[in-house]
Amino acid sequence: MSHWSKVRVELDELVNRHFETPEYRRLFSVKLTPARERMMSLHYPHYIKSRRDCWAAAQVKAPLDVKRAIWEHEKDELIFDERLGAAHLTDEDMAKATEESTLLPGARAAFFAWLYLSTTRPWIESLMVNHITERKNNPEIVKGGGYTQRMAMKKIADLGGSVETLDPNTRVHMVADIDHSNLFEPVFEHYLADERTARAVIAAARDSLAIDRAYRGTLASAMMEIPESQSL
Known about the structure:
By secondary structure, this protein is an all-alpha fold. It contains eleven helices and no strands. Helix 2 (22-29) packs parallel to helix 11, helix 6 (105-120) crosses helix 7 (123-135) and helix 7 (123-135) packs across helix 11.
């Protein structure tokens, strides 16, 4: 069995257990209201921009073949995704978002922490810091659906509507991270050549998931402070 085959099993266990953490339980236990959903939506473009910054940081130090793989990944996000008919993040999205200074302090800290990991770790660890955030969104790996799929179902249950009435970006991300996650399987298979690197990559995944827990916990706590009866 290759080093990546063993690491992959451990990572898949990590992302499945991730949804049983206190922060995720709290997030999915809070009933969504228009006001609470709006607070989440205002943070979303900044979260996506944070991912773009961190993927770019991983790309800087990576070998050429990995740079190409990251660029293929980022084209959907920044240039054009045929499934969406647009990029996943546009200038218009950022223009509609609140100023970064008005975001929840815990959210801003999480964005800084992800960027710190992505810029200070060796490239293969930096790649995993970012890859794991999409691996937990892959419904072929996470039993019960990845984050976007679960949150989409929660929005429908709490706010009404159907899958067809969800915003197009959400519908695309319910499946996009299957391809995005699978894209880097050959990279890790090729470059995970020893046990030391394997352990370092798993540690990077744990660190990134810890930041993700902090970010989701911050959103959950902030939503709980918004009265259920509060309107937009």
